[in-house]
Write a structure and sequence with these properties.
single chain; 379 residues; alpha+beta; Rossmann fold; Tumour Suppressor Smad4; 11-stranded antiparallel sheet; 10 helices
Length: 379
């Protein structure tokens, strides 16, 4: 979507209050000391952190606390909100009104940064769920490397799904603004297919195929039509319906390390119910379900009976599924797979149907590319 199509809805008191509080924190951040800092808030006003009264009340209290913490740091002399060329955007603030808005806003800022030379450093703060985070990181991933070096992203957990956020709770994420931090590079995940023009698809947390992608697909389809956490509801429904809609046939799988060598035990042909690949280990999805609870970044689950699915599904909350014989985990930089039947894939909450003609397909880690914040080690 071109930048001139971006729009901001009418003033929203909660959004205005959020922006005002963040505007008191950012001038005291310790990020990129000594540089001229510009910040941009990319907000999804429909995110649960704003629309659910109890959540917003708690978030406002946390923000007020961190205003006080931030003001214990020196006031930066060279700091202020970023401005976009779109005349309808407010300085330092863009509201995502629909799919593509967040990515378009960041592309606009990246283009402006390219034209403006190397004087300014940009902090992009996402306030939404995994979809907002995915769009912003996609724009950063596609930016020229020299421009991306002048950017960093902070992902606040303000949505319903916050698995791609920098912390599960707002306090932990805001601490990255008020405490000494380093800027490090995170990897992306890329899904390649054998069909020209279909992909590559990007993810920055977990990219998976099979049962979980079906749950994600149905959650997206029914979003707004079902009350409460529809993801949890569809986990239960999927155990009953998935095998009736999609054939769980054998997948030929081959896993490779960063040097292109075959991972030990990483070549097999099995009836795979779910395959999840993380940008690293210790990743969650589906609102903090611990699919990758340790340092290994790949988890595969063998097909199992309905009763066994119902018995195991609760274990994902704690990561104890990895102790069961149906699960096998390992580390890989590239996972190649091929099957005979259509199968869904999901990329941080967005889905695509892979058909037999799309195989072989591959999920691959990119080089470290996305600039993110990491708390500095205290000695």
């Amino acid at each position: 979507m071109p930048a001139d199509k971006l729009h901001n809805p009418r003033s929203n008191p909660r959004i205005d209050e959020f922006a005002a509080l963040m505007g008191k924190i950012c001038p005291h951040t310790l990020i990129a000391p000594g540089k001229t800092l510009r910040w941009l808030l990319v907000i999804n006003p429909k995110a649960g952190g704003f629309t659910i009264k109890s959540r917003w009340k708690r978030h406002r209290s946390v923000l007020e606390d961190y205003v006080n913490r931030a003001q214990a740091n020196p006031l930066r002399p060279l700091c202020g909100p970023a401005a976009l060329s779109n005349p309808e955007s407010r300085a330092g603030l863009v509201l995502s009104g629909g799919p593509g808005d967040a990515e378009a806003a960041v592309r606009s800022l990246l283009e402006s940064a390219e034209r403006g030379g190397e004087k300014e450093f940009f902090l992009i703060i996402t306030a939404g769920g995994d979809g907002t985070s995915l769009e912003v990181q996609s724009a950063l991933y596609r930016a020229p490397g020299e421009t991306r070096e002048r950017f960093v992203i902070l992902r606040l957990p303000m949505g319903t799904g916050n698995d791609g956020a920098d912390a599960p709770e707002l306090e932990g994420a805001l601490e990255l603004l008020t405490e000494p931090v380093d800027i490090v590079k995170a990897r992306a995940l890329r899904l390649f297919t054998s069909t020209a023009g279909k992909g590559p698809f990007l993810a920055f947390n977990i990219l998976s195929v099979g049962l979980d992608a079906f749950v994600t697909h149905m959650t997206n389809k029914m979003k707004g039509k079902l009350p409460g956490d529809s993801y949890k509801l569809w986990v239960d429904i999927a155990a009953l319906l998935y095998d009736r809609i999609y054939t769980v046939g054998p997948l030929e799988l081959r896993a490779l390390d960063a040097e292109g060598r075959e991972v030990e035990g990483g070549k097999f042909r099995r009836n795979i119910l779910l395959l999840a690949v993380g940008a690293s280990g210790r990743r969650t999805y589906g609102s903090r379900k611990k699919i990758l609870p340790d340092d290994r970044n790949v988890c595969a689950l063998n097909q199992m009976s309905l009763l066994r699915k119902l018995a195991l599904k609760g274990l994902f909350n704690y990561g104890t599924h990895i102790d069961k014989p149906e699960a096998f985990l390992f580390n890989a930089s590239r996972v190649e797979f091929s099957g005979l039947y259509p199968i869904l894939a999901q990329m941080d909450g967005e889905t695509v149907l892979l058909r037999p003609e799309d195989f072989p397909a591959a999920i691959e880690l990119s080089p470290p590319v996305i600039p993110v914040l990491k708390m500095r080690q205290r000695h």
